[in-house]
Amino acid sequence: MDDMVKLTAKDFTSDQEVRWCPGCGDYAILKCMQRTLPELGATRENTVFVSGIGCSSRFPYYMDTYGFHTIHGRAPSVATGLKLSNPDLDVWLITGDGDGLSIGGNHLMHSLRRDVDINILLFNNKIYGLTKGQFSPTSDVGTKSPSTPQGSIDPALNPINFALGSGARFVARTVDTAQKHMPGVFTRAHGFKGASFVEILQNCIVYNDATWANVTDKAVAADAQLLLENGEPMVFGKERNKGIRFNLEKFALEVITIGENGMTEADVLVHDERNLQMARMLAELGGNAGEPMAMGVLYAEQAEQSYTEAVIEQVNAYKGKRTLKDMMYSGETWVVK
After folding, report:
1. Per-residue pLDDT at 3
2. Residue 206: CB partners within 8 Å, gap ≥ 6?
3. Per-position DSSP letters for 210-226, written without gaps between them
4. How many Å apart are CA 188 and CA 169, to the nearest integer?
5. pTM (two decimals)
6. Cα-based distances in Å from 129 to 18, 93, 175, 249, 262
7. Torsion, Cα of 93, 99, 100, 101 (10° steps)
8. Which of 6, 178, 285, 299 is the most buried (most CB within 10 A)?
């Protein structure tokens, strides 16, 4: 395509009928992605969406780009091979809390620790939607479903903690309905050289409706969300009078009210997205009453060399020096008669 032609959201919209339940949060994520790609300067021929199995994994059909709808949990492996075979491609991996954290947990973990240069979007609705509402690794304790009729007793897995624990160097969170916030997160993830991991809080209107209402409803969002900005104080709330402080005695983060008990904005922590230990503590926020959930980029520390670059360097170093036959016949060999 002529470089002078500016693409629009329509250029990234396929002719396929979108088949999600009316009101599904996936619609909002799809539209946001279609609007954001032109702003990134993306082209259809160099953009690929790879998915596994689940409602979110229909995503590649609705993007007018290249795409692979792979098998359950194995999308990270396909995306890794794709990126290593053609490093010039922009590779987006679309997965869900079931596909990515259950059967695909092992594959996702290794993609993150290797720091493969792919953009991973994990849609988290805390349920298996496609297979009719079974509990997932992120479901709350007590979740009643066809597979847990008496209520789940499994502790919920925190996707952000999982990513950080796997060695991810870029970890962020946003919300399906946050149409102003989400593009910025996508842009940051795309610009990161290495594996970027984005958890998107997403609503399943049929099998787990309003599961994120305590965080996303307009009436509570200002007090329930901590919008992170690198280098800025962690202030939030309707009145912008609440903040996050580090309690040295408890060695934990805590919510304070500015103007009460002698607290001032000077007591509020300033976000440093390169601080891994801080990111781990921010990932835990939202679990207790009165705590906000951290949104935006929690951690971003780019390596000097990504896995993709290291593999290419290694391949180039040995190019022409050793053939497949050389490798097969190297060392001790024997003939079976």
Report:
1. 56
2. 21, 24, 129, 133
3. TTTHHHHSTTTHHHHEE
4. 12
5. 0.93
6. 16, 19, 18, 43, 48
7. 170
8. 299
